[in-house]
Amino acid sequence: MSILIVSLGLLVLLLAVWLLKTFSTKINFFATGLDQKFTLGEISILWKLAKIVDLEEPETLFVSTASLTRCITNLIETSKRDGTDSSLETQNFLAKLYKFRTKIELASENRRGLESSKALSNGQKLRLILKGSGVFASRILNNSRDLIITIPIQDGRIKIPPEDWKDKEISVYLWRKGDAGYVFDTKVLAAGIFLGQNVLYVAHSNNLFRAQKRKSIRTECHIPAQLYIIKEAVTEFAQVETAPGFKCFLEDISSDGALIRVGGKGVNNIQVKLQFEIDDTLILMYCLVRSVEYNSANNQSRLHLECLHIEPSMRNAILSFVYKVLPEDQKNAEVALSQLEDEQKADDKKAAEEAGQAAPAEEKPVTETEENSYSIEIPTAIDPEFLSKDSGNL
To answer: How much is the pLDDT for 350?
Structure first.
């Protein structure tokens, strides 16, 4: 009897070991998914997607943007085939996946952030703050034993002579493209001459700190849009404007806002509506103008917009554009067109050189051609009551 009990016990133990070994990957996957606040149903879908796209280690889906992107792409393709791409359930799940993807990417950026000024590139634009004297513009000419920078200017002029910067304690701010803003404190070691230019020699720092952290991922773009000034409370967010608005161009975009260029002088703190298309999807974005950069030379403004309202499906469309989550056939089409364009440019350049002619000039962007100039007549006197409206009323 005792031998039978021992045998059964060993059998149960072996079965348990086999089950654990066979299903350990799935068990860990579901446990990780639950830790990341996904429901069992959502984790089950993610598990199937991970298998469909042949992820060698399915659990990487929770830490790798590349793995998660492959799964999102497959989900989009599958939902389109099934006709469920516009369903509330699919859109909500996509929104959750995009939010999680943003979390992974920002966490990754935080880990690989700059730590030392020795990693900065030549040409990097800088803003220097000298206590009691304000903000100065400069850039790195050479990064070697010290940082060699151009003489700081303020309002386009050298207001402090080079020799007067020596031994000054300064705070240096910079924006690293595709990353974030950084700041570090340092000291001006000396003034001198470098490659025929007056320069300052600045001490390196190994204590760079992020000056600002992004809440969303944005990407550069060049998308035509229509802008409408909102003067009353909006009751119908889905209303498509048929009358022409002010012409503008998006220079970068994220799910939380955009940077646009318009003709004329923009105004802070007004509420606007952007209407444009991304990958054949109509986008209606309601925004607040947070800041304005006005260029009097060409009478154009860059408006930094904060998104106040956007429909979930439209937000997902923007995120798809930002993350370049495109179906495989569309990606192949984009690659093919790009290769054809590059080959054509190379052929044109070669033919021109052989004929002893100047290479064909690159086409100027629409924003730079006078024939296609666009302007916006934003009133400089806005109803104070309108400006004082809480953004939540939109």
So the answer is: 81
Structure tokens at 178: 């595709």
- Sign of CA pseudo-dihedral 322, 324, 330, 336: positive
Name, in order, each residue with C-beta under 8 angstroms of 31's C-beta and a sequence gap of 6 or more.
none
The vertex-120 CA angle with 156 and 127, nearest 5°, equals 25
* Regions of the chain short of the pLDDT cut 70: 1-23, 108-113, 177-180, 211-215, 325-345, 347, 357-394
